[in-house]
Amino acid sequence: VSVAVAANPFGWTKGWHGSYDYENLAKHADYLMVMAYDESCLAGPTASVGWVEKSIQYALTQNISPQKLVLGLPFYGRCWMQGQSNSQAISLYLVNSLVKRHNGTIIFDTKSQSPKAVFTIKHDKKDPLPPGAYTLWFENEQSLRAKIKLIQKYNLKGLGSWSLGQEDSSFWNKVFKNI
User: Fold this and answer.
1) Hey, how many other C-beta atoms are within 10 angstroms of the C-beta on 51?
2) Is the four-CA dihedral 94, 54, 107, 173 of positive or negative sign?
3) Which domain holds residue 9?
């Protein structure tokens, strides 16, 4: 039996993140999957490496064996339109074509170990997003490799994702190469 729990990098006791009793859930489950994604409410990383690591560290303070912890990683990004507070989830396999189609730029943020793209959609009836300026934070091979190294560092059981099928078809060979 596995139980998915919200990441809790700061030991919150209220709200979505604080509503899971990791220790007691672990007593009745074979695995806890820490959903280490959806970090940012406003434009920002989906899962910065620091946030993911703090989420792992918190879980380990809850009397849970590392071999009971599975790290859940995002296979999607979040796209924010300038001036809006809500975001649109974008599957990883769509990111490169979206950025290319709108002449966007991809920047890798070394602090968060996360890429982001900036682009502007003009009037394009083929696009599911309305016209406007966008920032898209997402995951790529480099960012996921940094997070997978945390699984090794803390000797966790393994990894899971939200959700299979959203990754690029070449993902598995690229990410696990040289790990």
Assistant:
1) 21
2) negative
3) 2-175
C-alpha dihedral over 138, 144, 145, 147, to 10 degrees? Answer: 120
State the greatest distance between any 2 C-alpha atoms of the chain, in Å, as a whole number: 54
State the pLDDT at residue 165: 60
> Which CATH number belongs to the domain containing residue 88 in this structure?
3.10.50.10
* Mean pLDDT for back-to-back runs of 10 residues, the chain (179 residues): 93 88 95 91 91 97 95 92 90 89 95 96 77 94 92 94 67 63
- CA–CA dist 140, 117 (Å, integer): 12
Domain count, the chain: 1
DSSP 42: S
